[in-house]
Amino acid sequence: MNLLEVDRVSKHFGSLIAVRGVSLHVAKGELRAIIGPNGAGKTTFFNLISGFFAPSAGTVTFDGRDVTALSAQKRVALGMARTFQITEIFPELTLFENLRIGAEVASGYRLRPWLGKSETAAIKRRVEETLELTQLADKSSRLVGELAHGDQRAAEIAMALTLKPRLLLLDEPTAGMGDHETFEITHLVRRLHRDQNFTIVLIEHDMRVVFHLADRISVLDQGALLAEGTPKEIAANEAVQAAYLGKAA
Amino acid sequence: MSETHRKLAILAAIWAALACMPLWMPYVGGYTALGSRVLVLGLGAMSVNFLLGFTGVLSFGHAAWFGLGAYGCGLILKFIALSTPLGLLAGTLLGGICGAILGTLIVRRRGVYFAMVTIAFGQVFYYIAFQWSSLTGGDDGLRPFYRQPLHLGFATVDILHDSAAFYYFVLICFAAAIAVMGFILRSPFGRTMLAIRENERRARFLGIPVEMHIWIAFTLSCFFMAFAGSLYALVNNFADPKGLHYSQSGDFVMMAVMGGMRSFWGPLLGAIVFVVLQDYISSITINWQIFIGLTFVVVVLFFPRGLLGFLQQRRRA
Predict the structure, then answer these.
(1) Could you tell me which chain A residue has the CA closest to the CA of B196?
(2) Residue B187 forms contact with A (CB below 8 Å)
(3) What is the predicted ipTM?
(4) Which of A185, B115, B116, B230 is the one with CA 20 to 30 A from B30?
(5) B188 in contact with A at a CB cutoff of 8 Å?
(6) For chain B, where are the E strands, in sequence order?
(7) Alpha carbon of B262: minimum distance to chain A alpha carbons (Å)
């Protein structure tokens, strides 16, 4: 069964049509990459999935449930977590505290005036597990705002992971990174996918990363779905090559 | 000495200094009633900072809840019952509940719009108090009423005439209020406040219903503020519309910013500086506000993290 079914969603901003009738079906355990030239509507499409804003038309179904009208916060509660193209973290808190907030909210403790010993311990364990998984454990007590760019990107993924999401939406996880950092993040995403069985949808510019990671690829161009298929099919697709190279198809 | 030990030592020093205030205050040119004023205005500044420093939301109309607390307390003592605890309770509930209700209309605004809407609502209460002379005494303020002796069962404490006894009463109230405040800030809920301050978008996408949490923080802050206002009515045996005015709100924000809004104790330090300067300079010139204003500008320019923030930073460096 598909975990995520996006059907013919569109988004208009006044007379600008940012996304037109795009569909996307993602199976449980799949890693789907969304690629496309600048301005293709990738991030807008992501915002429609995650509930940043509502689509002008179309539906979003998550795990069999129509979530089109639900707020971002409710979609998170159902198991959707996302990261942003520009890192969104809590800069003046330590890495541990950044993750603890996620773990506490996901455990339903957000309104609690206090936690018992066992609850506190469980939260701590969850944070530490996530830190291990993302290989950030040695930076636990550092302020996140003072970490290197690559570590901040990883920290944002770690924050999303504390929610134990069923669907992970990553908006350009390697944005602004050098080769080494890109390698590290790619490695992390692959571990999450292969070893931890996360279902992941990611937007990515770096084609090496995309072709290395993705099970399937969706190509957006000018707000519409241009092609969809396995990395091999996409690499051979003439329309995609044309969109990227600027030739007439 | 470990970090925890150092913190405990500082905490002990703060409370010891506060507990001995009636003893050392005369030597620095003050008097006991000034100590009570510092504590009450300090509590007000800490309530403003509960929102400003820990939720990242600037309310410029918090004097409304302060003043409502004062009137609530005064009206009870004047018209209903000669009971100090009842006055405190009524004032706290009046300010807190009004804040909670109006908060529902305010929390969707952000930044400067939030500040403007809070000023507007604050001024509404100011003009009500100003115009409704038959109940509030209008511009002359609400009087006469007096704080009443405390009946503890085994003893009666005369807090009206014994200024040291009243100071300790205020200190106990202050301690109770900020203990609750500190407790909330260390809770999972308190951490969601920090999350909203740090990054609202991230907070939302961690599943925090941001508006609801800001409303709860706002409401809690209003209750703390109204409690401070009720105490203020007892300090002065008087409540007047100026306590509701936006310039009073500005004073609280100034204290918080001067003392350091990222630290829990900063606003209390700000209140000490503010009240002591005001007391001292206003005995020399009626234009005392110029000097407070200059002090504020100097602090903001040279110690952007406030006085306490500056001291903490220096220690770390």
Answers:
(1) A90
(2) yes
(3) 0.92
(4) B230
(5) yes
(6) 150-151, 156-157
(7) 10
